[in-house]
Design a protein that fits this description.
Elements: E1 4-5, H1 8-28, E2 34-38, H2 44-60, E3 63-67, H3 75-87, E4 93-96, H4 106-112, H5 124-131, H6 140-151, E5 160-164, H7 171-180, E6 184-188, H8 195-200, E7 204-207, E8 225-228, E9 232-234, H9 237-243, H10 248-257, E10 260-262, E11 275-276, H11 284-303
The structure holds NADPH dihydro-nicotinamide-adenine-dinucleotide phosphate.
Length: 313
């Protein structure tokens, strides 16, 4: 069997075209949704992430602002910036790119964001709404995984789902979303006994551990839907040769560039799963799409506008 590949780029494009309609509706009312990003210091990965988020805003015609305090910034200075953004009427979403430098109290900064503008879904109030199943802004990566599952027609009700990883930003909200969709969810972490056994009885597997190619093909229940959130950089040629032995084009690109990305799931799992997300090009594009979606949603909710188009969240 060869798994159906769940293409995140295609799903992102569908979501963008639906968002365009909502953005048009808002523009018709004189409103142009806007996202403010806060990027502290010179972390190269963070710079790339923020640039892609701003590029997505530009693609969709959203306003965006980039605030770039130096990495010597204090908690108090960041709180003052967040306060300014909270009261600005043109700012619908506030995104504080993590990680923040060690002298900054990250929790305090995230908690200072107005929950109505919490487009990352990291505020305790957003998490509380998610726990109690009330509508709100949901963390982007797990929300994106739900879009992949729903739009690919994966049956969730009554399905056994394993979530590998219990972080606040991926694993925990993921498990809650699946539970609200009536899946029977097992949350796994580094102390879980016999992880392969849990995965083997799961119809849906969400891997979000940050452990390269750890989930092996013989852990996967034949026909299961496998969503690979992990993004791990591979630079060791021996590892690349081992993991991509059956994927000559990936090996070729590794040899040309000296690095590639691998998920938490071994690439050969595609020969057992019924459907699987690739890495890259699976969950990644949805994370930014859901940030855009949350920004538009925040703009609507702040103006009390119901979408004429169908609400998917
Ligand atoms: P964290 O490091 O915060 O959490 C990792 C989780 O995995 C923890 O709960 C940890 O358990 C668990 N874990 C680690 N090792 C094992 C193991 N051997 N067996 C079982 N569980 C294990 O990571 P994040 O949640 O932030 O991210 C997870 C992955 O997803 C990363 O690769 C990250 O790059 C990727 N990611 C991708 C995104 C995208 O857009 N594609 C967005 C966000 C993340 P414990 O709690 O016991 O320590």
């Amino acid at each position: 069997m060869t798994a159906r590949i769940l293409n995140g780029n295609q799903i992102r494009d569908q979501i963008y075209s639906e968002l365009q309609q909502q953005i048009e509706e808002l523009r018709g009312m004189g409103a142009r949704p806007g996202l403010a990003t806060v990027l502290v210091g010179d972390n190269p990965a963070s710079k790339i992430y923020v640039s892609s988020k701003i590029a997505a805003c530009e693609q969709l015609g959203l306003q965006s602002w980039r605030f770039t305090p130096p990495d010597t910034v204090t908690t108090r200075e960041l709180l003052a910036l967040i306060d300014d953004l909270n009261v600005r009427d043109d700012v619908d979403g506030i995104l504080v790119q993590l990680p923040l430098p060690p002298q900054v109290d990250t929790k305090k900064v995230l908690e200072a964001v107005d929950p109505a503008k919490d487009v990352d879904g990291f505020h305790p109030s957003s998490l509380g709404r998610l726990v109690s199943g009330r509508p709100g802004l949901v963390a982007c990566t797990p929300a994106g995984v739900m879009e992949i599952l729903r739009r690919s027609g994966t049956a969730l009700e009554g399905a056994n789902a394993a979530v590998l990883g219990r972080s606040d930003i991926v694993g925990k909200p993921m498990a809650l979303l699946l539970m609200h969709a009536n899946a029977t969810v097992t949350i796994c972490h580094s102390k879980t006994r016999d992880l392969p056994e849990v995965v083997r009885r799961s119809d849906i597997v969400i891997a979000a551990m940050g452990r390269a190619a750890m989930v092996l093909p013989d852990w996967i229940k034949p026909g299961a839907t496998v969503i690979d959130v992990g993004t791990n950089k591979v630079t060791d040629p021996a590892q690349a040769e081992r993991w991509f032995a059956n994927f000559p084009s990936r090996l070729e690109s590794f040899r040309a560039k000296g690095s590639t990305l691998v998920g938490d799931v071994h690439p050969d799992a595609a020969s057992v799963a019924g459907a699987i997300t690739p890495v890259p090009g699976g969950v990644g594009p949805l994370t930014i799409a859901m940030l855009m979606s949350n920004t538009v949603k925040a703009a609507r909710l702040r103006r009390d506008v119901q979408p004429a188009t169908v609400e998917k969240a």
